[in-house]
Amino acid sequence: MLSHLLLNPALILGAVAACFLARFITHFLSTHRALRHVPGPRPSSLIWGDEWLLYHSTPGIHYVRWHRQYGKVLRFTSAFGHQVLSITDPKAIKYILGEAIFDFPKPKGVRAWFKATLGEGILWVEGKDAHERQRRLLAPALSQTSVRNLVPIFYETSAKMACQWIKVIDDSHSDEAEIEVTKWAGRFALDTVGRAAFSYDLDCLSGGPHALAESLDGLTNNENKLSSFYMRALFWIFPSILSIGAKGEMIRRSKFELGNISSRMWRDAKVTGDVNGKDLMSMILHAEASSTTQKMNEAEVVAQMTTTISAGYETVSAIIAWTLYELALDVRLQNELREEVTAAGLGDPSYDDLNSNFPLLDAIVREVLRLHPPILENHHEAAETISVPLSEPIEGTSDMHLVIPKGTILEIPVNVIQTDPDVWGSDAEIFRPERWLERKKQGIRNEREIFAFSEGPRSCIGKVFALCEVKALVVTLLRQFSFTCPHEIEPFQSFVIRPRIKGQGPSSLPLLVRKI
Fold first, then answer.
1. Distance separating the N- and C-terminal Cα atoms of the chain
2. Where does heme bind (predicted)?
3. 53 lies in a domain?
């Protein structure tokens, strides 16, 4: 009788579902009880909590409103009553991202996303030893010393994109043409990371169709469909949803294209065998040739490569788009920056020049990162029940510690931190790069000025690389073109925060580009 029951698929599935439901209800009740003293908004939907509200609003706007109302620690409701903590308390953030970072791994849904799209690379891996092993391999290729040697490549890809823009303008038989900037920003980012990290020409800037660029665009650049909402709302609780439907097929296609190109690059690199270069590929080859403990199998190598390509594409393309958008809105600022970069002469500025001799350029890029952070939320999950110190009591209590139950998802809203009027003044929500020049003159420097690349042991190792290539591109374009924006643009949340024409679906930033 027992063996008959065990072999019945329906009974087995029912038992599994019952166990999952019981565990979910137990976690739901215990989390609600443990966090009942933490203030927060009433859920706007019985089923979807606040997910529908967040998805269909300007990115981050409700985080700002909630934190103004409820303080630096609050809770809101995700799908099916799942509780999420939102934290802007500086002492808590320093603890979570610093000494306790490996007690707060990425949520299971986020890790499932990275595994499904990129494999088991540095964005997926958890645990101190495993993470440090991968970081030790990747970090040297993205250090200041390495990036200093890569600056000529940044200018080469910048010049290639400028040539394509000139061709578009010439074909229009005028000195001006409308150019869709987000498309070109993404292809510039892909070609740059391919050349600089792997000495490989992905050939995305030729102007023709490109399978990798199109698959990445399709995956992260069309978030106006109901299927995207359901996936975003549910993958925190049911990570397996990432493999379902049209969106699941797009994820598989994107991973296939990334993996296909990465495998090809890896095979070509092993034939070439350059272990003395300074790019990431050479360092992987050197590690494989010289060490038994650092060796990775091909799947691990490909995962690191796909992760590097995707990270270099997503964040950099968004930063470029928002930088050109802000310059297009302010002709005075654009002209001042053009004067700064042309005063340096006709040669390409060096790494040190880009970081020391262009104060307005630096201020503009910093202000873009402050007001348009590519990643809106920094998500984590409590691996165990843990007490987190606070700099001020939770609203309505005297509690100077927050006990976070095991399994609780928490998020750090970057836009709230970077538009705090107590730090940035009453004009914190206005794009004003001059504030950085004023702060430098006054010697003002906060511990956490820009949070866009996170901080601590798991901060973005590609920060120096990304900022340098953005600056090199801006210098190149401003010497040849002027920009204006004839459309009303709004931000929307895809994988990163992208611009689009207001009311439209995918990312779009058509600028009027004129030769000068």
1. 85
2. 460
3. yes
Classify residue 282: in a domain, yes or no.
no
The one-character DSSP state at 489 is E
pTM of the model: 0.91
Residue 386, domain extent: 34-116+376-418
User: Residue for token digits 């009311």?
Assistant: 503
What tokens appear for 52 in the block? 């529908």
Three-state SS at 9: helix
Give per-10-residue mean pLDDT for the chain (516 aa).
54 58 62 89 95 94 97 96 96 96 96 93 93 88 91 97 97 95 95 93 90 82 73 91 87 90 89 78 78 68 91 94 98 97 90 96 98 95 97 91 96 96 94 95 78 90 95 98 97 90 89 97
Say which CATH number the domain at 108 has.
Answer: 3.30.43.20
Q: Residue 179's beta-bridge partner residues?
A: 511
**Structural domains of the chain, count:** 1
Q: Where is the binding site for heme, in residues? A: 460
E-strand ranges in 390-473 read 401-404, 409-413
Residues whose CB is less than 8 angstroms from the CB of residue 148 and which lie 6 or more positions away in sequence, other chains included: 350, 351, 352
Residue 78 lies in a domain: yes
Question: For residue 72, which phi and psi values (nearest 5 degrees)?
Answer: -85, -10
Three-state DSSP class for 484? strand
Would you report the helix, strand and coil content of the chain in percent, each value rounded to 5?
Answer: 55, 10, 35
C-alpha 134/C-alpha 136 separation (Å) is: 5
